[in-house]
Amino acid sequence: MTLTQEICNRLHEAALKITDNFCYGCYKVVEGDRCSDCFSDDFMRHLPSKYYDHPVASARLCNSSDTVDSRAGTPGPVRPVGVEYGTDWVVRHLLTTRLEAVDGEEMFEELLDECYPEVKIGNSVFSPSQVLKELDPIAFNIGVDENLQSLAEDGVLFEFDGDYYRLEDLEDLLEELEAEHP
Ligand SMILES: [Zn+2]
Description:
Blueprint: H1 3-18, E1 20-23, E2 28-30, E3 44-47, H2 50-53, H3 55-60, E4 82-84, H4 88-98, H5 104-115, E5 119-121, E6 124-126, H6 128-135, H7 137-153, E7 157-160, E8 163-166, H8 167-180
Antiparallel strand pairs: 1-2, 1-3, 3-4, 5-6, 7-8
Helix pairs in contact: 1-4, 1-8, 5-7, 6-7
The chain binds zinc ion.
Zinc ion is lined by residues 23, 25-26, 35, 37-38, 40.
C-alpha cells in the first residue's frame, strides 16, 4: 500500500468513526446497524455539531461550501448540518476546516530563490522567482505544479481535491481524531 492510500484509508476510517449512522427515511441518528423504525441499514453519515464548533473549524466556516441541510435550513447565518452519503464530504470538511493548504506559488518562489542567484542589472536587482514569473508565467505555473507533485511523491505533501496539505499536519490531525475515537 502506498503512503497516499494509507493516509486515505485512515482519513476515511476516521470520518466513519466521528460520524453517526443516519436514517434519511426516518430522519434520525441511529444507534447500531439497523434503524429501529424502518430496519434500513442504508445510512447516511451524520457529522456531530462539535466538528463544526471546533475552534479551528468555526474560524473558517464562513468560507466553506459544506452541505446545508435543506430541511433543517433556517434563515439567518448558515449553520451547516452535515448529513450526506459516503465519507468523502467528511474528509473534505476535516481537511478544509482543520488544516491549511500549502501555497504552491510561494513554495516554488522560495525554491527558485534558493537555487538561483539574484539578477543584477545596473542598480536594479531581481529575484529569480520574480524574473521567471514575469517573463515566462507559463513555465512558472508548470514549475509550481511539478514542485507540488514531486513533494507529494516524496511524501511531504498530500493531495486532496487539487489542494496540497503537509503530511505532518495531516498525521497530527489523524492522531487527534484517532485518539478521540479509539
Ligand atoms: Zn429508519
